[in-house]
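Ticket #4471: structure export looks truncated?
Reporter: QA, pipeline team
Priority: medium

Steps to reproduce: submit the single chain below to the structure queue and open the exported record.
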Amino acid sequence: MKDLHSRHRAVLPDWLALYYDTPLELTHGEGRHVWDAEGRRYLDFFGGILTTMTAHALPEVTKAVADQAGRIIHSSTLYLNRPMVELAERVATLSGIPDPRVFFTTSGTEANDTALLLATAHRRSNQILAMRNSYHGRSFTAVGITGNQTWSPTSLSPLQTLYVHGGVRTRGPYAALSDAEFIEACVADLRDMLGQARGVAALIAEPVQGVGGFTSPPDGLYAAFRDVLAEHGILWIADEVQTGWGRTGDHFWGWQAHGASGPPDLLTFAKGIGNGMSIGGVVGRAEIMNSLDASSISTFGGSPVTMAAGLANLTYLLEHDLQGNARRVGGLLIERLRAICAQLPLVHEVRGRGLMIGVELVRPGTDEANPQAAAAVLEAAREGGLLIGKGGGHSTSVLRIAPPLSLTVAEAEEGAAILGQALRDA
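Actual output as written to the record:
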């Protein structure tokens, strides 16, 4: 392990982050568990950053990958691709967007990059509205709209970005307001901002902010925003890279908690649909998706192998009602964690929906972020046999919990017990 870590540091950049004081090499997985190079088993509550959505080594997915790889691995979008068409048909139907078109990419970053290209080309403007505390990917364009300074290494950008209030409910100037007052204040802020801008192309927003610590506004905020945006012809891009495919339990897409004024114009997705295979994409109204006036292709987007994996994974998800399981088991897990954390001054809040749960840590007796405690709990949970994530904005420290959606009640209870002990140890 130490030798591999040394080799990693010798050939990979310093900014490529690793978890744990002694980094972990994962060698294989099954169900909701993974094993390290020393043979130790862990309950996986982070799923490769919300990507192993159904289960590790899901037979239906591994068989689909093997079968397709045995026929043809790659062709590019210059040729008809049956698995890509079939998955696009299913995504289009599930999206809720009228007359949709689908474009596949290899990551969520590339999906958001494409959505921004489409929106700015369609509106002929490089002005973008984004949410404070947001994260949308690693590319130059995506970093340029990210509202979380921890993940924004440069201020340079091809876009002019204005940041709107609303993504964080329990901190900031509107935290003390009721939900209705919060939405009213955020809408007023949006209107004021639009009075200072001209020809904005789009608002991009995560229904639940992922890297920002699994924080979200009251239901209906983005519906209220959409009414204002529509007055100006501004597009709404829903970044569903982390919230999509039923993870939040209550809805298949995160935008549906804000759907009173209709679906988004563009929806980006990635992560869980591939169950570890590199799939991302954009689905949107044909008028926007068809608006590019230059030719384009994708070399790797829509690969026959990844599309076969996505089809098998989506079929399994729907046939086994994993959205319903996320709602039921996720609700139980949140209740257990809230009960455990109620007496711990280290914990500011347990929040989330379905199997997308955040535990915000503070310095006891204050409202200040506690990154040292978050790092300590991450280590202690690993020692107890549980893998979790962490995140948060500039003023928060959050443990991120996002297991595969097939998590059982027994595994939820086990994970809550391990995490509870790790929090008490910290």
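Status: closed, not a bug. The export was complete when the record was re-opened. Leaving a note from the reviewer for reference: The first helix runs from residue 2 to 11.
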